[in-house]
């Protein structure tokens, strides 16, 4: 469930990545896939403190940070992690409401024609999503329900396959691939990167692996390779076919941006699958926060903030950028250095630090672009009055 939970968000990120063109777009997505895989393997090595087979287990991401780094870095990690999870909840609320609204608009376009604006507010759908989350948040251990991952996989496969198929059909109708080698000029609108919030779940997943041999780290590395490879293939296929179908004018999201109007019922199925997926994903990702705050109050807070900031792509781009470097790169690298006792200024130490610095630079640039996009959105924004 965790790996698939960011699929809808990352599909939009793949679309944005392809706006860099046929050369840089795929290269950027592959680069981030490699970084995520590599840092995930570093994190897997930190599951046990000391001996990799018999050392003390670290059951969560925070446990690993506490065991290896300690002190102020534990508090810093906690603040970033919980802020990131709060952002995830906001992003999922916005995404789900946009998909629900897209179903209504698709039906409207079908009945009244494509020239009709079919404008509507997303607020009622955010409130509906919030009410559903309040109900589900009262179910004890909701994230432990065994069939959640199965439903998530089916929903992911459904809307990804529909989006991919529509992209292929449009490309065939065009008589060839659209787009360019260099893509559009990079500005505030092109800020998203492929991200993997499921890295925070690596420790919890690894804790379900039976005792060695082989060690949990080796098993987790193999699982991570398969998982990252699978999701990367999906992201690249969706991004590439969307760009091939519409070129530099590709919508931010093929399923909600109405690059396609027909068959409307197929778009409804895809967006319904997204909503079902995000309902469960929300509950899975915010469980750590539910352990510390009143659940209903948290859901209400995320719903209200979502209604105040309904800029899906820019908000998600900013949250992804801010959380990417510290949680995906910095802490895994620093923990691995401590765990393996890598000498300062050794070749390996220098290479790891260069990787961290490079990702920090990308994070800063991406966050700056997202902030510029949000500021641009705010110029025409009215609180609680956003329509699509």
Automatic annotation (TrEMBL):
GO terms for cellular component: plasma membrane. The chain crosses the membrane at residues 20-39, 79-103, 123-139, 145-169, 223-244, 264-285, 292-312, 318-338, 350-375. It is a multi-pass membrane protein. The keyword Transmembrane applies. GO terms for biological process: amino acid transport. Residues 19-297 form the Amino acid transporter transmembrane domain. Signal peptide: none annotated. It holds the Pfam family Aa_trans. InterPro entries: AA_transpt_TM. Keywords: Amino-acid transport, Membrane, Transmembrane, Transmembrane helix, Transport. It is found in: Cell membrane. It comes from the Eukaryota. PANTHER family: OS05G0424000 PROTEIN-RELATED. This is Amino acid transporter transmembrane domain-containing protein. It comes from Oryza barthii. The lineage of its organism: Eukaryota, Viridiplantae, Streptophyta, Embryophyta, Tracheophyta.
